[in-house]
Structure prediction request, 358 residues.
Amino acid sequence: MARAPDWALNASHALTTAASRIRMIACSTPLNLRSELDRLVERWSRSEESVPYFIYEAPPDHDEIRRALGELAAWLDDEGPLGQVYAARARELTEEASICSAVGTERLRTLARGRFRRRDAFDAQADALAAGWLAEGSADCPDEPRVQTDDEGCAWSLVSRMREELGARRLPYRVVSVRDLSALAATGEGIVQVAMGRSVTRGDVERTVLHEIEGHVLPRCRAGAIRLGIFSVGTRWGADDQEGRALVLESRAGALARGRRRELAMRHVAARMLEEGCDFVETVRRLLSFGASVHDALRITARVQRGGGLGREVVYLPAFLRVEAALAERPELDRVLGSGRVAVDAADVLWPWVAKDE
Prediction:
């Protein structure tokens, strides 16, 4: 494997420290998400259209971090292709820091559109894919057994299966149940969070276990064993393409069933509507027109518009197509994409640090 340059250790430390303080998803997740969704479902079920009143943490002051990251990026630009990968991540963290400071304000939507802007031709292809998936129709299976995600007494609940799989693989991660979580599960440093009180099928459970462990936990573990810190802190767009890779893994395992496809497509459409300036009520109405339940339409809209309009869900389908295309052309790239939060764009530059010595 390649030797890390002398400057990389300090640059990695600086980016890691900054990333630990810039908690974009946590900052933009409402503290009262569950209670507000419950209230909205009750109102909309009575045909009373209503908007959420979300409460957030006090926005952090990241001015000093942004200044330091800007100086770091300017210095790293002169350190060749690897330095430019580091610099691009520093600038992305600057964007994310600005988003954190704007949570709950009208500025967030504009800032987020810069961070989650269209990257390449896969964005347009994702729009077409979402339309095709929605045209497939409903995938309701009312007789399919369901369980609560956090049911400790059920062996195949999400919390039980996640713990079982992590334990079987001896992965140093613990599982905790969280009330106000937009996704079914989310992976952090040494922890996998599972949403409380969500009704899911066995297929949902197994797919989520696959997504979190293969798509997020294992890449984090591999990144920790590599001497170059950018694998752990992530490249620019690395978090986005890691979600795309997780969806590729779902697809290969036959876990992208119709219900999952419709969910992803509705998130994508809701995020595109956010880009177009549509409000909460307009988006809920649109999802209902696709046949979504009141609960799902409200849940997806709240997820997409959290923080005042984060809209991160717009990256999933383009990243899925981007990673799928990259691996179809060069399957060996999965070695680097699966070794941390690495974007397809950075894979060639980082390849020497994961390539096996012959």
Summary: The mean pLDDT is 94. The first strand starts at residue 146 and ends at 148.
